[in-house]
Amino acid sequence: MSFDAALVGRFIKGDKRACSRIVSIVEDRRARYEEYLDALQPYGGGAYVVGITGPPGVWKSTLINKLAAQYLNDGKNICVIAVDPSSPFSGGAVLGDRIRIGDIGLNPKFYFRSLSSRGSLGGLSEATLDIIRVFDAFGKEIIIVETVGTGQNEVDVMQACDTTVVVTMPGTGDDIQAQKAGILEIGNIFVINKSDRDGVERTLRELQTMLQMNPLNDKYEIPIILAKSNTGDGISDVKNNIEKHRSYMASSGWLFARRSERNARDFKKLIERKFIKYLDSALAETPEFMKAESSVKTGEISPHRAGEKIFEYVRKKIFHLTGE
Amino acid sequence: MGLDKLKESFKKWKEEYQKKSGAGKLRQKKFMSVSSYEPDPLYTPLDAENFDYFEKLGMPGEYPFTRGVHNTLYREKLWTMRQFAGFGNARQSNERYKYLLKNGQTGLSVAFHLPTLMGLDSDNPLSRGEIGKDGVAIDTLHDMEILFDGIPLDKVSTSMTINAPAAILLAMYIAVAKKQGVDPEKLSGTTQNDILKEYIAQKTFIFPPEPSIKLIVDTIEYCSKHLPMWNTISISGYHIREAGATALQELAFTLIDGRTYVEAAMKRGIDVDEFAPRLSFFFNSHNDFFEEIAKFRAARRIWAKLMKDKFGSKSSRAQLMRFHTQTAGCSLSAQQIENNIVRVTIQALAAVLGGTQSLHTNSMDEALALPSEKAVRIALRTQQIIANESGAANVVDPLGGSYYIEKLTDEMEKGVMDYFDRIDRMGGVLSAIDKGFFQSEISDASFRYQREIEKNERIMVGVNAYGDGNGEKTSKEILKIDEKVEREQIESLREIKKKRDNKKVALTLEKLKSDAKSGANVMYALIDCVESYASLQEMCDVFREVYGVYEEPPMF
Amino acid sequence: MSEKIKVLIAKPGLDGHDRGAKVVARAFRDAGFEVIYTGLRQTPEQIVNAAIEEDVDAIGVSILSGAHNHCFSEIIGLLKKNQVDDIMIFGGGIIPDDDITYLKSIGVAEIFGPGTPTDDTVKFVKDRVGKGN
Questions:
Q1: CATH top-level class for C6-126?
Q2: Does the structure show a pLDDT above 80 at A296?
Q3: B158 pairs with which residues across the strands?
Q4: Which residue, B319, B391, B399, B383, is CA-closest to B80?
């Protein structure tokens, strides 16, 4: 597949289909996808990324829909990326987050893209960060990333986003406890949605108590907002708090620090991946590797020992390095 | 009776059976019902030990009504033959109704087109392409007058399949009756008016659950005062079944919806013995003959107990469950459509042996289009043959006492109570709808059913077995809706809006809005609106403004 | 990373019968496709917009209310207007043979009526879209 410069040309002119196509190329990691990312590099830089996460059933979609409407009202150019888990068995997925879009769907400044996690244990497809870059280059000012919060995913979300909003709802104390793992450490803003339900005071108190123990809270007081996304109550509060956090991030230097760290991390990951890919193909058929592998399988030598041996082999014979 | 002898005999029989089964001598690995239920190969008096006739069955017409709601049932009066019909414009449907009545149908059943079901007028851009395609187009009272032209409403009972805007169509029906000079007290019929199953299955909802239930209670209250013979609601399982539910789910979800409505009406202070006699039900009748019969019998028994024990009703009229049945649309094949006549016959017979009060039989071509005249005539004849030639109507509850049927009826009842517990633990029906519980149960069941067919564990004759290879071309006789119906309907609506007293319309709509806002019973204001020729959408828009619009939970 | 076959399953018009659409969506998922399901009551504009934003390979239209001729032609018209010529259109529901002939003449690849095994539909999409999967 050759590099399609015309496609990039159309993208730069603001053609939605071209953007959509490039997102797919990047998502699928199709041949030469890095060249497309390279070509887009000079553009964008103006996007602010908001992550919205929380367990199923808290009406995140409705909240995001209303939040998006407010941003559109302000004249902002926005997009929503919604991530849903894919089937661990078939690799397929049913992505139903568009159900909630409603009227704003046809607004030319609005763009909605569904992603499946594609089996990534992190819950976010590996390509998500790159896809965010594409939308940034496309001129999007606010990029909302929606995920279903279940454990380890949250850390990924936090790393990919500038502000993270955690959504929950009134429930038994157990719910908050269950969600605790990791969630409380990454949220910059908390929203208790469906706040007209029973148990909201208790949930609020529990959250407040847990947040007090969070070290991040010392630098910036983490707000807890009560909302009813079906009626729209509290949505402006959410938006205002996002903006407030954004100013804080910018003025304190955190935003820059976070983004540079993110880029650095990505850079490292990409190098790792490239090396792994290279080694996979370089080593796979070599007799040294195959012998070591079968010895490990039969238990003749330990995996650590075998690993050392192969590492030395790679250093000397593949990379031609000498010395220590 | 010699139970010991029977136990011995049965044990021997079972061993023989298991030998054959183990040796792979049986036709199939599994023998299951339509709902994937696996019955035993044989039932005997051993399944009926400790069977208490009066606790489980009672006499027909007496609590708990398992055997039927009337002591002589069909010997006195056959079930009503009520074919669901409606297409094109009011004039065309009026002709079809007259055709059906002429051919022996004994009650009318109106199908409205999708825009009407969704509270939209024919000139709404969302209605393009949908006018008259799957029901009759009704925009104003003018259409309703034409629909019943020449049909005396004091002599013919009419069932209307309408849910979100049911109160409006009821107001229209009352207005037509007034114009015919018929006293509303004489009106008999039904409005389906069952919004809970819309959220669960049929999906023709408009407003959110709480105000929708308020509208339903308004109609119940209004009818208890002014239309004593009107069935205010047809609590439905048919659509739930069509969406893919099992027989048990159909039964459980319908009954718990019914329970919710009773609770709502009682909360408003209406006496249960006053409104409950006018609640009615609507079930599906699918292919598994025995499962369906047991379902109908269990339905009556469970409802009677609920009304007596939980709601404290005193009169038997409030405890007995009357229902309409329709044969299963989802069982019809688009291939070898004549086979559908046979399916419908079996399903109709099950409904009759289950004691239904009224029955609709599907036409053979309904997997392709709305019924043609010939096909609907055959469907009607099916009922008439069952009534007059098969002997099924000669004895009340003829399958009562069958070891299999009684066991199955008991199991259905138990299964329903289990579902009730689960749903109650979730916080009740509205909460369960919110969580997508019903929708996911139904979705799972329908997917399982489809897989069974594809793996050939379940045979559908003419479809995955005994097929014709490349399929015969379907008959050219199917019903087509002329495209000009749409243009004419829009024109007609425009004319009405020009000719009517628009100042009066505006005033009646204002009153409707203020009544809706204040929580007053809206029926009175609706009748005024309707009589001034306000359109359906105009009235629904008032409700949309006051009550809001429902959005489905993104449940897949 | 693999290239997934992406299909939009659409319910245009006012029709609320979603049993078939959901069964097919599940079957597609089990076959490894990514399915975008936009829910009930979508206008042709919403459907085409979603198809473009999600960069789908095919659109499966489910319609049981009799409004199929209108809905399909609207969708196809809009795709043309947006210069989209590489999305495959197919569908299912209650559609008589005469209308199937008409629909195919305006660009619908295939109609899968009641009784079609989902495996057939899966195979058709795989063959037509032609991606490795």
A1: alpha beta
A2: yes
A3: B108, B189
A4: B383
B421 touches chain A (CB under 8 A): no
Taking an 8 Å cut-off on Cβ atoms, the answer to whether A98 and C25 are in contact is no
Residue B279 has pLDDT above 80, yes or no: yes
Nearest in space to A127 (alpha carbons), one of A264, A19, A33: A33
Q: Hey, what domains does chain A have and what are their CATH numbers?
A: 1-43 (no CATH), 44-252 (3.40.50.300), 262-318 (no CATH)
What local confidence, expressed as pLDDT, does residue B94 receive? Answer: 97
Calculate the alpha carbon distances from A97 to A263, B436, B523 in Å.
Answer: 29, 15, 39
Tokens, residue B366: 């309904």
Hey, is the C-beta of A307 within 8 angstroms of any chain C C-beta?
A: no
Interface of C with B in 60-119 (CB under 8 A): 65-67, 69-71, 74, 94, 96-98, 113-115, 117-119
Asked whether the beta carbons of B479 and B364 are under 8 A apart, the reply is: no
**Residue B99, pLDDT score:** 93
- Residues above pLDDT 70, as percent of chain B: 98
Interface of C with B in 16-55 (CB under 8 A): 16-19, 22-23, 25-27, 37, 39-41, 43
Taking residues B446-472, what's their average pLDDT?
Answer: 85
Q: Is the pLDDT of residue B516 over 90?
A: yes
User: Which structure tokens are listed for C85?
Assistant: 């010529």
What's the pLDDT tens digit per position in A303-321? 999 999 888 888 887 777 7
Name the residue ranges covered by the structural domains of chain C.
6-126
Consecutive 10-residue averages of pLDDT for chain C (133 residues) = 85 92 94 94 95 97 92 96 95 91 96 92 94 53
Flag if A20 and C55 touch (Cβ within 8 Å): yes
Identify from C11, C17, C19, C94 which residue to disrupt to test chain B contact, counting B C-beta atoms within 10 A and taking the largest count: C19
Report the C-alpha gap between B387 and B75 in whole angstroms: 10
Mean pLDDT on B69-90: 94
Q: From the CA of C114, how many Å to the nearest CA of chain A? A: 22
Give the distance, in angstroms, between the CA of residue A305 and the centroid of all CA atoms in the same chain: 37
Work out the minimum CA distance from B556 to partner chain A, whole angstroms.
7
Contact list, C36 vs chain A (CB under 8 Å): 95, 98, 114
Contact C84 A17 (CB under 8 A): yes
Contact B554 A230 (CB under 8 A): no
Interface contact A96-B551, CB threshold 8 A? no
- Residues from chain C that touch A30, judged by Cβ atoms under 8 A, are 1, 3
Q: What amino acid is encoded at B230 in this protein?
A: W
Q: What pLDDT is recorded for position B63?
A: 96
Helix (H) or strand (E) holding B274: helix B272-275
The per-residue pLDDT for range B280-329, each reduced to its tens digit, is 999 999 999 999 999 999 999 999 999 999 999 999 999 999 999 999 99
Q: Is the backbone peptide bond immediately before B64 cis, with ω within 30 degrees of 0?
A: yes
DSSP state of B396: S
Produce one character per residue of B363-384: b if its CB has 16 or more CB atoms within 10 Å, e if not: bbbbbbbbbbeebbbbbbebbe
Q: How far is A98 from chain C (nearest CA, A)?
A: 5
Is residue B455 within 8 angstroms of chain A, CB to CB?
A: no
DSSP label of B277: G
All residues at 6 or more sequence positions from B268 whose CB lies less than 8 Å from its CB, including other chains: B217, B221
Give the orientation angle of helix A235-252 with respect to helix A254-284, to 10 degrees.
80
At residue A123, the pLDDT reads: 43
Token pair recorded at residue A53: 């996460």
Torsion (CA) B335, B341, B345, B351 in degrees, nearest 10? 70
Cβ(B90)–Cβ(B101) below 8 Å:
no
DSSP secondary structure letter of residue A119: T
How does the average pLDDT of chain A come out, rounded?
86
Task: Check whether the bond before A223 is cis (ω within 30° of 0).
Answer: no
